[in-house]
Amino acid sequence: MFKKLDILILKAFIGPFIATFFITLFVLVLQFFWLYIDDIVGKGLDLFTIGQLISYVAATVVPLALPLAILLSSIMTFGNLGETFELVAIKSAGISLLRFMRPLLVVSILICGVAFLFNNYIIPVSNLRLNRLKYDIINKKPAFDLREGAFYTTLPGYAIKVGKKEKDDSTLTDIIIFEKDRTLQDNIIIAKKGIMKVSADKRFLEFKLLDGWRYAERGSRVNLNSEYIRLGFKEFKKVFDMSSLQLGKTEDSLFKDNYQMLSVRQLNVAIDSLSRINDVFRKKTNTEISPYVTFVKQIDTGWVQPARFTKVDSLNQIIPDSAFTQANERVVSQLSIVKSTLDINKTDFENRSKNLRFHKMAWHEKFTLSIACLVLFLIGAPLGSIIRKGGIGTPLVFAVVFFVIFFLLNNFGKKFVKEDVMLPITGMWMATYVLLPIGFFLIIKALNDSQLFNKEFYHRLFRRFRPKKAEPQ
Fold first, then answer.
1. Which residue stretches, if any, does this entry annotate as coiled coil (predicted)?
2. Which of 18, 217, 374, 444 is most buried, by the most CB atoms less than 10 A from its CB?
3. Residue 21: closest CA among 73, 76, 75
4. Whole-model pTM?
5. How many CA within 13 A on the CB side of residue 202?
């Protein structure tokens, strides 16, 4: 009987989980494109590049999609069972809530393991390739788009203007080409008509110009004497190199040392190395300052105050007036050097400390986003059995509320860790610390058949405490 019950619950869970997972993934991918739409549109990206970008983005948002999918699908599953009174039948057979939660609990734990493996091995590679591709796309110049009556200046060294483009987008009239140069005068080509053609590999743009003039001036900024040349032509061929408009391919090595591109093992090595910054900077500061603070070398534990030690209140008592100005200037100079050295070391120390916090934050995040699948299941399962509403409407409302709480707490924790307000172990686990007790509270309420989200219960409660109307005399 129990095996049939387990299969029933698993079948009821798998469908909503797969559907909500892909819907959530789609929404999160759209959010990325919404943020970077200005950097992508107009770049002339091919379908293969767009497909790569979508796949990398989808892989990086899987850790967020999994917890939301588990939360929504668990609420829907137990809500459907409650709405069709299957939940009541199961309880009446003497089976507790915890017992029929067990198969989905095991599935949630397995998903936590899969999520951790994904975070540890797939996400670093996806982040590396996504950041490289995003960098190339953002730095890529817009695709070639020659418009009527406007100068096109994206090609390095040239400004092109056409009066009119025919419907075939190849035949042009009233063409002006400025050749930008470092000499005294830009060269100019003017043609009444021309034919434009782009090579098959889109690396070269060829203009076949008809009936025009080419104006050029030869000279330099050193020698002001220049030579002016005017050349008329019936046909002139001009080729432009469009390689600068192509999508470049940056090496992965540019981003591979970023904390987001490291696995747990690599993060452990990096954190161990960065954790030694206190000893490193202490030795570095002593080495750099000791030449300017020479009296420190004279201090040791064996120094004994002389018997005839005279206390002085000012340096004027031991430095003669003739040497005071020179001594004062030397002290100020030495102190300026010491202060500058300390400021530089302070900035370097803060940057390294920040880098250490980011590495610890990435280490904890690989575990927190995995455990979130289990935490949100412990909220969704009892919540669904309490509200007893199936479908997508009510479960979606509750799922969005709790996921927003999880998302905000997670981001607040990351922000506090980045600003050094909280330790990584506190800030990165903030969402878990808050939501886990809520999950246990909802489980207790569900075990006791709580009316926590039943509006009829609150309506009856309100009527009970509402004052009765006085009877007419």
1. none
2. 374
3. 73
4. 0.68
5. 10
**Burial of residue 11, with CB atoms counted within 10 A of its CB: 0-12 exposed, 13-18 middle, 19 or more buried:** exposed
What CA–CA distance (Å, rounded) separates 29 from 380?
Answer: 24
Does 179 map to a domain? yes
110 pLDDT more than 90? yes
For the chain, how long is the longest CA-to-CA vector?
119
pLDDT by residue (tens digit) across 300-313?
A: 555 555 555 566 66
Cα 188 to Cα 106, 149, 151, 163, 399, distances in angstroms: 75, 17, 13, 16, 65
On whether residue 117 sits in a domain, the answer given is yes
Cα–Cα distances in angstroms (integers) from residue 148 to residues 151, 193, 198, 216, 320, in the given order: 8, 14, 18, 25, 84
The alpha carbons of the chain give a radius of gyration, in whole angstroms, of 36
E strand or H helix at 176, and its extent?
strand 171-179
Its domain, for residue 419, covers 2-140+361-451
**Contacts with 94 (C-beta within 8 Å, 6 or more apart), sequence order:** none
How confident is the model over 233-260, as pLDDT tens digits? 888 888 887 766 655 566 656 667 778 8
Concatenating the DSSP letter of every residue in 36-62 gives SHHHHTTS---HHHHHHHHHHHHHHTH
pLDDT in tens, 118-135: 989 898 888 888 888 877
The answer as to whether 305 is a domain residue is no
What are the angstrom distances between the C-alpha of 72 and each of 17, 69, 79, 144, 304?
Answer: 8, 5, 10, 46, 76
SS3 of residue 151 by DSSP = coil
- Cα separation, 457 vs 446, in Å, equals 15
Residue 364 pLDDT class (50, 70, 90 cuts): very high
φ, ψ for residue 236, nearest 5 deg: -140, 130
Q: Are residues 379 and 444 in the same domain?
A: yes
- Count Cα atoms within 13 angstroms, Cβ side, for 264: 11
Cα dist from 182 to 127, 157, 222, whole Å = 42, 10, 12
